[in-house]
Each structure stands twice: as C-alpha cells, then as structure tokens.
Amino acid sequence: MLILTNSLTQILLKQLFSHKWLWFLLLLLLLVSCASSRLSTLKKTVIPQLNAPAFNEQFTGFLAVDLASSDTLFSVNAKKYFTPASTVKLFTLYTALKTLDKHTPLLKYREQQDSLYISGTGNPAFLHPYFNDSTAITFLTNYNTILLSTNHYTGEKYGPGWAWEDYPYYFSAEISPLPLYGNVLKVFPGKPWRIQPKFFKSAIATIDGAPTRAWNKNRFYLPLQLQDTLEIPFITSDSLVLQLLGQKINKKITLSEENPPTEASILYGVATDSILKQMLAKSDNFLAEQTMLMVSSVLSDTLSFTLARDHVLEHHLSSLRQPPRWVDGSGLSRYNLFSPESMVTVLTQLYQEIDTTRLFSLLPRWNEDGTLDEESEDFRHHFLLAKSGSMGNTYNLSGYLRTSSGKLLAFSFMNNHFRSPSREVRTRMYSILKAIHLEY
Q1: What is the pLDDT of residue 145?
Q2: The pTM is what?
Q3: 111 SS3 class
Q4: Which end of the chain is more exposed for a tag (fewer CB within 10 A), N or C?
Q5: Domain final residue, candidates 299, 329, 363
C-alpha cells in the first residue's frame, strides 16, 4: 500500500494546481456552466411550447441530439411509432448512398452472337422529363436484334397501402423494371399543346371536370383551357415499353421469355447524386421507389424493394432500437411506422459515414413555409437542412439544425392525427426549432 506523507501530498497538489492547470480547470468549469445555463434557459422556452394545448390535441414526437457530444436536448415520445410520410426518403437516401456507385446502373446487358439481351435496373432517369437521359438510346442503336427481359421484377405497380384514388396524379406513377419518361405523360400548355411522349397524342380528349386519366386504360382527359403543365401517370406494360423504346430507336425490340442475362455487363447512366437530390427536393415518390429497385439490381438479379430494404436493415441499420415497419421507398403508404429515434439514428449515421459536403448538398432547406425552392431562395441565412413528410392529418420533419453558436443537431419532429391546417403545425414547429437555433 502506498502511503503519502503530508509533505509529498503538498508537493503533488502544488504541481497539480500550478497556474496552467488552475486556469484550465477554471475555463472548463466556466464552459460547462455556460452550456448548462444555455440549455436550462432553452428548456424554459421550449418545454412550455411543447406542452401547449395545440400539441395536446395531436400525437407528437420530438427528439433533438447534439451530434458532437451525443447529448439529448429534448425527447418526447421518441421511441413511439408514427406514420412518417415522406421522411421515409431519408432511409431511401441512406440505402442508396451505402450501395450505389457514383453513377446509376441503367441497363444490364449481354451480347450473344448477333443479339443483345437487356433487362432494366429500375433506373428512373431513362428519358425522364427532368433528366432526359438518352445514354441507353445511343447504346441500343448499335444493335439490330434486341431482346428485353422484364420478369425479374417481383413487386406490384403500386406500393402496399397506397390510396387507389391517387392513380391519375403525378405523385403516384407506377413502379416498373424499365421505366420510360418517368412513367408519366407530360402535357405543356400552348397552341397546340406539346406532349411527351408523342406516342399518346391520339389518346387525349378534352373535357372539363373529369379525372385526367381513365381508371383502367391509357385514355387521358384534359380541361378545355389548359393553364399549367400536367403530368399524368400512364399504365405501364411490357407491350407499351416495347413500343415506346422501339419507336425511340426506330428498331423492333422483342420480349424475351428467358430470365435476365447472368454475368451481364452494366451500362451506367446519370450521376447517383442528381437523382437523390431531385428525390429529396421535390419529394418525388417515383424516384424514391425506383431508387430502391436500383439498389436491389446491384445486390442481385432481382428487382425487389423488400430485398433492398432487408439488406440495409441487416447490414447497416441493425442497431435500430425500434425496428421500423417499412413497406415502400417513398413514404406514400400509411402502413409505414417509424420512431423519431430511428430517424435520428439514420441521420447520425449519415453524418458519421458520408462526407458532409456531399450530404448537405443533397438535403433541402426548410422554413415555416415548407421546403425551399433552391432556384429562388438565398440559403445563407437558413439553419435547417431537413426532409419534410406530409399527408392527411400528418406533418413531419427530420434533419439537421445548425445553432447560432455553431453546434449541429440531428432532430426528428413528428406530428400525427391533427385536424388543424398543416400551416399551423409548421408554424409551431418552426417557433421551437428557431428557439433552439438562437439559444443553444
């Protein structure tokens, strides 16, 4: 046993509490005290707002975590399950960033004698009105005999739990293994109208007050006075793909009954980040669903949302303490169930595993009016990088918050089962997030 004499103790204490150490300890205590004081002041501002009557009339979850210290600032129903709506796209983002290369897979192909066998990878950019990727068109024009396989997609045209009455709206475009033109008919106003693809010109009629498309066939109805550009999902089929693609390359394409070619080469298309950025900025359900199919095409010869989901949950997100009910890539389904804690977990892993310059360039900016338009807004004074998610009686927001003192937080703010207008919910959320920005 070591026994310290009084003189030895005095020497050690004198060395320990030299001027350098003393000033360091005093500074450390001051910083801890200031941080504690700021958080105490902040809670006096935020907690009464979270306890306001308006929040008591809905189901609310809120979790905010300091990414540097891992300290939890606020936690309200953080482990409970909520309908997430389009905040599910953060999980789709994570899945894509952990799986896809710099450029997206566009086609799988194999040359055999004089024939080219091809199969789709689910890539949504092929002739899409926004991306207008014609890489595959240039490639296919070099071959005379082309055989297309489509029997490797195992899902349905719509995700589980999607609302059937959404069929004529752009946000409910069908899921398919080889989408063309974003699986939508786009009509531009003018005299005459301009349509894309022109293939559907004879299938358009004008009538006021009707749905923009027939329920069970590609028959489209436009108002007599078309003021805005319309995007109307068309019904996909193998025969339609053969016609649209064959017309585009001016060659006949044959449907192959065989499975997609094994040991196939991959033709790459647009940059992965260009699809992910557009998916988040516009909350594009079609891009999200097709992105999950691209992920599965990298993992196997099968196109399957389930395969992609199970892979990322098992290999990258096994630490989730509330395993989600995750049924689609877009969040369009009401079957999805996620907790605020799960959202913050995936945001934390994105921050730790992905280059932040790249990550922050993909995420949209947000304020009390909603997601900001990148082309028209000055972002220098905005402090929220976040993905919103909304549907009837639901408004959620998950992302990153930069405080005025330079701290970075990951947060998830989820609101379900309210009957007030979404604008009022956004205003209450923004007030709380702005207080955290200013006071922490």
Answers
A1: 95
A2: 0.90
A3: strand
A4: N
A5: 299
